Amino acid sequence: MEATNHFGFIVAAYAAAAVTIGVLIAWVMLDYRAQRRALAELEMQGFTRRSAPARSERVMEQAKEEV
């Protein structure tokens, strides 16, 4: 059995894996940005996170500018 017979399949498998990983990374990055935006909007409405310290006015202004 020669490896050259299966070369196309091996390349296609690696390419499919690379594309899948790339899509997953892009999806996570886009979702992260969306969640940060949603969190900033909630904080501007007055909702706070229990784990976060109170935010200063300067930080609140920066959050408004990011949205």
Q: Main traits of this protein?
A:
67 residues, rod-shaped, mainly alpha, 2 helices, 0% strand
Short note summarizing the structure:
This protein is 72% helix and 0% strand. With 67 residues, it is mostly helical. It has one domain.
Overall description:
There is one protein chain. This protein is mostly helical and 67 residues long. The protein has helices at 7-44, 57-66. The chain is rod-shaped. The mean pLDDT is 85.
What is the strand and helix layout of this fold?
Layout: H1 7-44, H2 57-66
Helix pairs in contact: 1-2
Q: Segments where pLDDT lies below 50 for 5+ residues?
A: none
- Helix/strand order: HH
Structural class: mainly alpha
Number of helices: 2
Q: How many domains?
A: 1
- The rounded distance between the terminal residues' Cα atoms is 59 Å
- Measured as a percent range, the helix fraction is over 70%
Number of strands: 0
Radius of gyration, CA atoms, in whole angstroms: 22 Å
Largest sheet: none
Morphology call: rod-shaped
Mean pLDDT rating: 85
What is the beta-strand fraction? under 5%
